[in-house]
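Archive entry. Fields below.
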Amino acid sequence: MTDSQQCRICEQGCRIPPGGTGICRMYTQEDGTIRERYPDSYLTIMPVSIETVPILHHSPRAKVLQVSSTGCTFSCPGCVSGVLIGDIERIAVALKRLPPEAVVARANQEGCSGIVFCLNEPAVSLPSFLRLARAASDAGLSVGCSTNGYFTKEALDQLIPYLDFINFGLKGSSDQPYHMCGAAHAAPVYRNIAACVRNGVHVEASVMYLKGSEEEVAGAARHLSKISPEIPLQVMRFVPFGDADLRQEPTILESESLCDRLKQTLPYIYLFNSPGTRCLNTVCPSCGGIVFTREFYGPMGARTVQALPEARCTCGFTIPVKGAISATGFEEPGMLGGYRVTRALEMVEAILVCLGAGGKAAPPAFWPSVVSGEFIKDLHDRIQTIDGYFGLVRDIGARCGKMPEAEGLVGYLSERVDLVRSRTSGAPKPRVYYSMGTPLFALNAGRFEIALVETAGGEAVNRTISRKGKPGVNISKEEFNAFSPSVIFISGFLSAPAEDYLRTCRSQGLSARAVDKGAVYTMPPGWDFGSPRWVLGLMKIANLLHPDRCSFDLDYERTEFYRRFYGSDAGSADQNRSFSNPPRPATVTKDTISGPQGRQNIPLR
Ligand code: SF4
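PREDICTED_STRUCTURE:
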């Protein structure tokens, strides 16, 4: 009988018995040898802009071919990729086998300048990634990855000769946050960063910022500054996906203040997951001028809007940027690109949960049928209108054998939509502005949130903006002031407290009737996009826009929705940013569900 063998790919150092698996469940042991369970197999292969990896100081605006598999060597609470790594066996059936030469050929066909392994941890597919990296290098393509950095020294030594750029996703600077992710020590990660820098690999680092973890983040900046002060540090404002607690989410203002402090340690500090933030720009360390202007481009993503030639500031200082700056950026279609794919899959899961087919209940053929570029690309258009959403529910119901449940969900939603329409029909339309995060980030006019406003009898001023981003664009103070909205909504996805929003308006000289009256409302997570719970958001918007006509009892409606579609009797709160989170008993703060006073109970039965 063969003994268990130690896997030496990452510092978890799992001992794997014959036929067994380690922590990541992506390797097994056969005849004394550790083998990949799914060699040369990928879940997603698609062109993306390099800033969605994210990499900011290497070949800005480059189009690269992103590949991902499934699984991770860590288990971090609230992981943005949780839907890709949570249940390997369920997702693995959707992996597609593609030899390295075929991936390289696809990169060339798509006009990509490089290949990048991200979305999940490359260590779980290291032999495949090494084969791909070798083939890509031979073909003159650049090679990069995004990793938790927990490789063993010998594993990283094999990869370094092929690597052009790498993003290390840090959990903090001490061992404690690594324990939260199921790892023992921070030291191997910093050892590996130093090894990459020594060997000429372009290194960027990202660090998760949870409320209360300021010293961990500051410690990470200090560690990096000792390795190289040129390492850009991306501060990932924590957004509680999965089961994580909303109270761990720092506000954008708190995050910007931390970034300002970190700049005393490292010159290139960037803030992510914060639409409209000033902290995504590259500011010249010499004179304070802006060399790169960027805007929010989805979770963990950025888009370069403007760049000074050769990364040189008007004062003459040159930002250390490797590779050429492309004149134009690549715009991914629909939900493709970066971590938007994980959001798309989570929106599908959100519907599955309501149909009673969430988690392991989905039939085996379901995920392979939806984890295709075409489905995810089309998904984007289908989730932007109410009728499109009904069609999506029916499509998912058909794919998972739950058509009666799908019709039941559509019927429940459409009954309430019709009631909102009938109550607001013919009423004067208040001017409404819908933003995400901060006042100067406007959602695209074609977004679902705008459809909700218009269904609830509002006039969305977002329709006057012709520029488009993902999911919106930065706007100027002049544009904001010209909107003159009487009501403002802040998206429930990447959100902000209304008081922070108002403070920002006042400090930046932004004026609107909504600001004067304090008519600024933060939507609860999942109430305005991505989850069938949007029907609750629709009723909340109707109450706020037309208090004379609408007084939906949101407590009752929420309890009813959770009881019927999540099987919970308790009226539960929306505790995280997951679109599909099952309910957990919790307390909703008053302002998140506040509506007009003296509302009547209009139960829909
Ligand atoms: S790569 Fe996977 S199996 Fe190998 S040591 Fe790391 S977690 Fe364990």
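CURATOR_NOTE: The pocket of iron/sulfur cluster is lined by residues 7, 9-10, 12-14, 22-24, 26-27, 73, 123-124 (CB under 6 Å).
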